[in-house]
Write a structure and sequence with these properties.
Layout (H helix, E strand, L loop, with lengths): L5 H13 L2 H8 L3 H15 L4 E3 L4 E3 L1 H30 L2 E7 L5 H13 L3 E7 L7 H4 L5 E5 L7 E10 L2 E5 L10 E2 L16 H7 L19 H9 L5 E3 L1 H5 L6 E7 L4 E8 L6 H26 L1
Parallel strand pairs: 3-4, 3-5, 8-10
Antiparallel strand pairs: 1-2, 5-11, 6-11, 7-9, 7-10
């Protein structure tokens, strides 16, 4: 590590994306010859060629591929540390970046306030993440923790407090024949194609985008989507239906779609998730704030039921 030049590493990472010396130079605001110089210096430093270059194409060597796989996460972690220090130096407060796919509401919103009361030198920054890639921002160091729709079965991620457990909702266009029902059964899902989330793990899709009913009737699938709003727009246009958690349904005010509870499916729930081995000091504080908030919500619900 002695004498390592960050600029050399940045050059290699950009070149690995572009696979073109001229384009890499444009992104780095340096000349093409400077890109070559930085690359040669890094190759001399590590002791092996990282890039194969001919007059027609640029590609990574097998050693370069291995180096990229190891360097990428380490560089992003380092960049996140620097960014965090810069933010803290600016207003004196440590940042915890919380990824969220829909809206921050209910117990999460309360937990954020409790967190900032317990850690007055810190603040939570809300970062929107897509439905189709909830884990990428965690692995890339773009967020420190995230609230996602369960299940999550990733070895490199920790699942903390779980909450908002309730029946899944089938999102339908307002004029669909099933839209007037107060509830539909899982066998009814064979009557309308589903709009799945693109690139989601198989174990997650089996819960939230099944391909068959319990009796074996086929559930057709439309093309996948990346974002919630993209999916809801397809549903409103009559292109299919989506399965969503009940908390998402509660905060939608659109008149062109309806959310109908589905019986016969596993309930949906949300969870706070963060990278295994994370050393961010705010994560256990936020997890504790959320757990305490959920306890408070449960007690209030119990009181309401006893009074009713």
């Amino acid at each position: 590590m002695k004498g390592i030049e960050i600029r050399e590493l940045e050059c290699f990472l950009v070149l690995a994306e572009e696979l073109h010396f001229g384009h890499a130079g444009e992104r780095l605001f340096v000349s093409q010859s400077r890109v070559s110089q930085l690359l040669r210096s890094l190759e001399n430093r590590v002791g092996a060629p990282l890039v194969d270059r001919t007059s027609r194409r640029v590609s990574l060597t097998p050693f370069g591929e291995e180096f990229l796989a190891a360097l990428g996460p380490a560089y992003r972690t380092l960049a996140a540390v620097v960014d965090g220090a810069r933010e803290r130096a600016r207003d004196g407060r440590r940042r915890l970046r919380l990824g969220f796919q829909c809206w921050v509401n209910g117990p999460v919103a309360t937990a954020v306030r409790v967190f900032e009361e317990r850690a007055p030198d810190s603040r939570v920054d809300i970062v929107e993440i897509t439905l189709s890639d909830p884990f990428g921002p965690l692995r890339e160091g773009e967020v420190d923790a995230a609230v996602v729709l369960l299940p999550v079965r990733e070895r490199d991620l920790v699942v903390g407090p779980e909450f908002s457990r309730q029946p899944q909702r089938l999102v339908l266009s307002a004029d669909h024949p099933l839209a007037s029902r107060s509830r539909v059964g899982v066998e009814d899902m064979a009557r309308v194609p589903l709009v799945p989330v693109r690139n989601a793990p198989d174990y997650w899709l089996r819960v939230h985008s099944p391909t068959a009913t319990p009796l074996g009737r086929t559930i057709r699938h439309e093309s996948g989507v990346d974002t919630l709003q993209e999916g809801l727009s397809l549903v409103a246009a009559g292109r299919g239906a989506m399965l969503l958690c009940g908390s998402t349904a509660r905060y939608q005010g659109r008149e062109d779609i309806v959310f109908v509870p589905v019986s016969g499916l596993p309930e949906s729930s949300l969870g706070l998730v963060w990278p295994r081995g994370s050393t961010h000091p705010g994560i256990p504080v936020l997890a504790g704030a959320l757990a305490d908030t959920l306890t408070g919500f449960s007690q209030e619900t119990a009181v309401d039921k006893s009074v009713g």
